[in-house]
Amino acid sequence: xxxxxxxxxxFFAAAAGVIPPGLINMSVVKTSLSEGKRNGLIMAIGASxxxxxxxxxAILMSRYISTNPSVRVILLRLGLVILxxxxxxxxxxxxxxxxxxxxxxxxxxxxFFKGVGMSIINIxxxxxxxxxxxxxxxxxxxxYDAWSIFFFSLAAALGTFATLYLYIFSFIRIGIxxxxxxxxxxxxxxILMLILIAVTSIRIYYE
Length: 207
Prior knowledge:
Layout: H1 2-17, H2 23-35, H3 37-67, H4 69-95, H5 108-121, H6 125-136, H7 146-174, H8 178-206
C-alpha cells in the first residue's frame, strides 16, 4: 500500500514539475513541430528514460545530500555553468537565419538521443526528486526498499512523459505556425536560460 501511494505521489509530482515551460518540454514541442509528432514522442521517451535514472540517483542520495549542504551547492554551481553555456548557444542560434522547416524521416534514433542529451544536461530534476523522496519518507531513519526505489523512479519517468505527451498534442492541435515557432523558440529558450541563471544565482547566494 505504501509503495502504491509512493508511486502515485511521485507520478503527479513529476507531472506537475514539467508543466511550467522549460528546457525539456519546449525542446520536445519544437521537435514535434519541426520534425513531426513521432519524433517528438521519441524525444520525450528519451528524456523520460534519463529521468528514471535521475530519480534513482536522487532517492539514493537524498539522505546524504540532506546531511551535506555543500553537495547541494556544488550541484547548483554546476547547473549555473551549464545554463550560461546554453543561454549563449540559444541566443546565437536565434540570430541565425532560419531555414524552411521540413519534415524529415528516419530520425527516430537521433530524436531519442536528442531527448537523452537534453535531459542529461538538465540536472534540476535531481534536487527536485530529492525533495519529493524526503517529503514522502517522513521517518528520517527509514530506508526505501528495492521495490520502493524502483517504483519511485518509474513513477518519475512516467509522470514526466505524461506531461510531455500532453505538451506535444496540445501544441499540435492548437495549430501554431511552425516556422514562426521555430524562429522564436530559440530566443525564448535563451531568455528562459537567463531567468534560470538568475534564480540559480539567488539560490547559491542564500545557501
